[in-house]
């Protein structure tokens, strides 16, 4: 059986080689592809955080509205699931 730290080292080395290969394939000498992907992931995570903050504020200010919205979403989900079966 493989030693876990050794496995992790090999995995990280493989990921690094893959990223280097993708950067070479794209041929961009500026920001590497892996850096651009991480930047896009950060922007998406920030946007999702803002959406969740807004949703939390709305549910705190108007709990009945949140309950109604959750009920409607649950009803729609059950309709779609029942239709599939």
Detailed description of the structure:
The protein has 85 residues and is mainly α. Helices cover 87% and strands 0% of the residues. Helix 2 (33-61) crosses helix 3. The longest helix has 29 residues, at 33-61. The model has no long low-confidence stretch (mean pLDDT 76).
Any chance you could write out the topology, listing elements then pairs?
Layout: H1 4-26, H2 33-61, H3 63-84
- Report the C-alpha radius of gyration, rounded: 22 Å
The multimeric state of the shown protein is: single chain
Range of strand content: under 5%
Q: What's the helical proportion of residues? A: over 70%
Per DSSP, the total helix count is: 3
Which series of helices and strands comes N to C?
HHH
Structural class: mainly alpha
Total number of β-strand segments? 0
What's the rounded overall pLDDT mean? 76
Poorly predicted runs of 5 or more residues: none
Distance separating the two termini: 44 Å
Largest sheet, in brief, is: none
C-alpha geometry: elongated
